[in-house]
């Protein structure tokens, strides 16, 4: 197993719902390029000009929960039963009236935040987490929160740590490059639904200098206990505050070919990309992300972080 140790701990939050089909400000990206040091990684340089201003309070509030993009990836030919994977659609994982939710409310965590981005002319919101890295500027999220899988990389990509009920205590951090496993960017393979973004400095400081960062772990044993975090926005949640789920991971029985694991969790759209920490707190090392769930099933699945996702992290962390 491989682990990278933590720099610190921290804060987070925010939004979702409705469709917004606007693009402008800082939209250009370079053509995706295979990482020469690791052919398993695809990356792109993004234009950050105007991105912070683009994400007004209204645009953040009306951004679409990014979980729907996982379903779109499946429709483009992923090797699974596309009819099953529906996390993020507003009709799914609806709580029974009067039944308590599994997800628990959390105080903001400094290094956990909201991810905002544009794909195919629509604005989306996901969750993300600042992780320890050589460049002190790396954020983890789901692959479908930065690349169509397969398809184009996102534009207008921003990370807002500690966002809660409209507050942005640490500002908006814009991306300078996005990194995804080639298996995701070329094939939309749910087994590799993880991506990493490298952020620009803000006011002369690097991201983890300001908010800290989680350690990361790869090639760990299966069946561990995890605590996951995210910002679910579909009913019964509103996307304004941080939620968490804790449980022991089990294999996905519906699509075992993914090699993914799930924990009891009823978080809905907007929670995509939120971190999974080994153990029962946000101070653990990160070892997966919220990826997808099934209709009427209160289980959240995340990809196994093996050598390919480790290479993707390394590509981002040293860029």
UniProtKB/TrEMBL annotation:
<dbReference type="InterPro" id="IPR043504">
    <property type="entry name" value="Peptidase_S1_PA_chymotrypsin"/>
</dbReference>
<dbReference type="InterPro" id="IPR009003">
    <property type="entry name" value="Peptidase_S1_PA"/>
</dbReference>
<feature type="signal peptide">
    <location>
        <begin position="1"/>
        <end position="30"/>
    </location>
</feature>
<dbReference type="InterPro" id="IPR050966">
    <property type="entry name" value="Glutamyl_endopeptidase"/>
</dbReference>
<protein>
    <recommendedName>
        <fullName>V8-like Glu-specific endopeptidase</fullName>
    </recommendedName>
</protein>
<keyword id="KW-0732">Signal</keyword>
């Amino acid at each position: 197993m491989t682990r990278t140790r933590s720099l610190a701990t921290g804060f987070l939050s925010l939004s979702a719902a409705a469709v917004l089909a606007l693009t402008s400000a800082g939209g250009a990206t370079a053509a995706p390029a295979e990482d020469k040091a690791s052919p398993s990684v695809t990356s792109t340089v993004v234009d950050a000009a105007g991105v912070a201003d683009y994400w007004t309070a209204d645009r953040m509030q009306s951004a679409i929960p990014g979980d729907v993009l996982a379903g779109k990836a499946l429709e483009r030919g992923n090797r699974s039963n596309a009819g099953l994977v529906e996390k993020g659609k507003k009709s799914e994982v609806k709580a029974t009236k009067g039944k308590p939710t599994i997800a628990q409310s959390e105080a903001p965590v400094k290094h956990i935040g909201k991810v905002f981005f544009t794909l195919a002319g629509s604005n989306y919101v996901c969750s993300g987490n600042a992780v320890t890295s050589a460049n002190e500027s790396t954020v983890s999220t789901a692959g479908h929160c930065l690349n169509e899988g397969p398809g184009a990389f996102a534009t207008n990509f921003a990370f807002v740590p500690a966002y809660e009920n409209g507050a942005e205590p640490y500002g908006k951090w814009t991306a300078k490059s996005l990194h995804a496993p080639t298996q995701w960017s070329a094939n939309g393979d749910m087994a590799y639904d993880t991506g990493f973004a490298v952020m620009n400095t803000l006011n002369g400081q690097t991201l983890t200098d300001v908010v800290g960062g989680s350690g990361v772990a790869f090639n760990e044993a299966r069946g561990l206990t995890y605590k996951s975090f995210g910002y679910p926005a579909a009913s019964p949640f509103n996307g304004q505050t941080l939620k968490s789920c804790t449980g022991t991971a089990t294999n996905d029985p519906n699509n075992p070919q993914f090699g993914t694991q799930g924990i009891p969790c009823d978080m809905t759209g907007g929670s995509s990309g939120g971190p999974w920490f080994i153990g029962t707190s946000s101070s653990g090392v990160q070892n997966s992300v919220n990826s997808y769930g099934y209709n009427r099933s209160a289980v959240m699945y995340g990809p196994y972080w093996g050598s390919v996702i480790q290479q993707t992290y390394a590509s981002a962390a040293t860029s």
